[in-house]
Write a structure and sequence with these properties.
By secondary structure, the chain is of the alpha+beta class. It has 2 domains: 21-240, Neurotransmitter-gated ion-channel ligand-binding domain (Acetylcholine Binding Protein, Chain: A); 244-372 and 380-453. The protein is 46% helix and 22% strand. The protein is built from 10 helices and 10 strands. A 6-stranded mixed β-sheet has the order 3-5-6-2-1-8. A 4-stranded antiparallel β-sheet has the order 4-7-10-9, covered by helices on one side. Strand 5 and strand 6 form a beta hairpin. Helix 4 (242-261) runs antiparallel to helix 5 (270-293), helix 6 (303-330) runs antiparallel to helix 10 (389-453) and helix 8 (341-354) packs across helix 10. The chain binds 2-acetamido-2-deoxy-beta-D-glucopyranose (3 copies). One 2-acetamido-2-deoxy-beta-D-glucopyranose binds next to strand 1 and strand 2. Pfam families: Neur_chan_LBD, Neur_chan_memb.
Length: 454
């Protein structure tokens, strides 16, 4: 046994010595760069992590350039981006002395033949369809540089409330899927400011989205007793709203303007009703077109969508009001009915005061029913009763004419009162309309300011 151990220890020492020699690739004088045999021996070790001491983790340095934002799908909450990813790590078996190898410091090798860290994007939710680069560069120090393109379909919580002035912040988390912190660690290859700068340079020219900034932080993901090293990049992008301003906001503003101007048509005219009907029709067509442009999610609608619905509601209400006023004024049964007390108090009293509506001064004549109670009139009646039958007849006829005129006047007064009710309602709706539209303009301006200053 002792004899056996005596044999074993020297042979183990020899093995370690061989390992130490193996960690540097062999070169021949007639050949520049490491020999094929020595490289083949490294390729044979592909399944194993290239660390001479397995207690030391392989550090992978990550950097990327955000090359394009290909799309944002609000409905399925997916952000599609295109990255140029660059990974660095040390392959401790791929080291050589450039002086012995004809001054070669860098060679390229096929990536399938070498171990590589299983760095993934945690938010990735689709298969990767991008092209893979089959080669890597390796340094004489064993530093490997691996470049690849990556089309990332990542899940992201997209907020569309501020559409089209929306800003999205999505995370891209890089880390090893399987290897815990004791085997693979990740860190940044470039300062985060530089990653951000490089990406901005490429994204400046392309597409609907503009890059605001990229932030990054390293973190440790814990799951049970295992820990994973991760880097989270926060990509903040904002939409370029020109398309939507031209196609949504400006046409809707024009329609709103026309609708506002239609309040200057008299509320009881039939023209106004048909005018408003046409406007509503036009607005509906606009809404149909808009439906394609407006994003929608299950958990919310953009503010601008709510606003369009409110505008449609206001248009319909103003049309209804026109219809009611027209009905009141043109329906003969209504003509002789006075304005109900409640309506008079509520509309002509409170509402009129609330919206500062002053009744335009009506004709200076006094109400007609005073005339019959005039004392002079009674005197005349007495005188007439003693006159000739012809005169009596004329007088009776005149009385009838007067009664008719009186009833017409009464009718006109009632109609005027109804018209006033109509005007008060119309003014109220007009004010509400103006307030809502001003509010909306303010909100849009605020959103635009926030967007602009980001
Ligand atoms: C391997 O690395 C660990 C930690 O760095 C160190 O404690 C240990 O001595 C090393 N083992 C060998 C055989 O070098
Ligand atoms: C990774 O970055 C660290 C410092 O950030 C550096 O010390 C190390 O050499 C880098 N590793 C590789 C493989 O580039
Ligand atoms: C090669 O090694 C040198 C230091 O010896 C380093 O500056 C350089 O970035 C490395 N290049 C690559 C491609 O790894």
């Amino acid at each position: 046994m002792g004899e056996f151990r005596g044999l074993l220890i020297p042979s183990l020492c020899f093995l370690f010595g061989a390992a130490a020699v193996l960690s540097e690739l062999a070169c021949k004088d007639s050949h520049s760069g490491p020999t094929y045999e020595s490289l083949q021996s490294v390729f044979d070790k592909k399944p194993f992590r290239p660390a001479t001491n397995l207690s030391n983790p392989t550090v992978t340095n990550i950097s990327f350039t955000l090359y394009a934002v290909l799309g944002v799908n609000e409905k399925s909450q997916i952000l599609t981006t295109f990255l140029w990813l660059r990974l660095y790590w040390y392959h401790e078996f791929l080291q050589w002395d450039p002086e012995k190898c004809g001054g070669i410091t860098k060679i390229s090798l096929p990536v399938e033949e070498l171990w590589m860290p299983d760095i993934i994007v945690y938010e990735f939710i689709d298969e990767d369809k991008s092209q893979r680069c089959p080669y890597i560069y390796v340094n004489h120090t064993g530093q490997i540089r691996y470049d690849r393109m990556l089309r990332v379909l990542s899940s992201c919580n997209l907020e569309i409330f501020n559409f089209p002035f929306d800003v999205q912040k999505c995370s891209l988390t890089f880390g090893s899927y399987m290897h815990t912190i004791r085997d693979v660690r990740v860190s940044l290859a470039l300062p985060i400011e530089q990653i951000s700068e490089n990406s901005k340079k490429y994204l400046e020219t392309s597409g609907e989205w503009e890059l605001v900034k990229i932030q990054g932080e390293t973190d440790i993901l814990k799951f049970g007793i295992d820990e994973w090293d991760i880097i989270t990049f926060w990509v903040t992008i904002k939409r370029r709203p020109v398309l939507y301003v031209v196609n949504l906001i400006i046409p809707s503003s024009f329609l709103m303007l026309v609708d506002i101007m239609s309040f200057y048509l008299p509320p009881h005219s039939v023209d106004r009703a048909s005018f408003k009907m046409t406007l509503i029709l036009g607005y509906t067509v606009f809404l149909l077109i808009m439906n394609d442009l407006l994003p929608s999610t299950a958990n919310g609608t953009p503010l601008i969508g709510i606003y369009f619905s409110v505008c449609l509601a206001l248009m319909v209400i103003s049309l209804l009001e026109t219809v009611i006023i027209t009905y009141v004024l043109h329906h003969s049964a209504m003509k002789y009915r006075p304005v109900p007390r409640l309506v008079r108090v509520m509309v002509l009293g409170y509402l009129a005061r609330l919206i500062c509506y002053t009744r335009p001064p009506s004709q200076p004549e006094t109400p007609s029913n005073n005339i019959t109670t005039d004392p002079q009139e009674k005197m005349k009646n007495v005188e007439v009763s003693q006159a000739s039958p012809e005169l009596q007849q004329i007088c009776r006829d005149l009385g009838m004419v007067r009664a008719h005129i009186d009833s017409l006047r009464l009718q006109q007064d009632l109609e005027e009162e109804w018209i006033h009710v109509g005007y008060v309602l119309d003014y109220l709706l007009f004010r509400v309309y103006l307030v809502l539209i001003t509010l909306y303009a303010l909100v849009i301006t605020c959103m635009w300011c926030i967007w602009y200053n980001l």
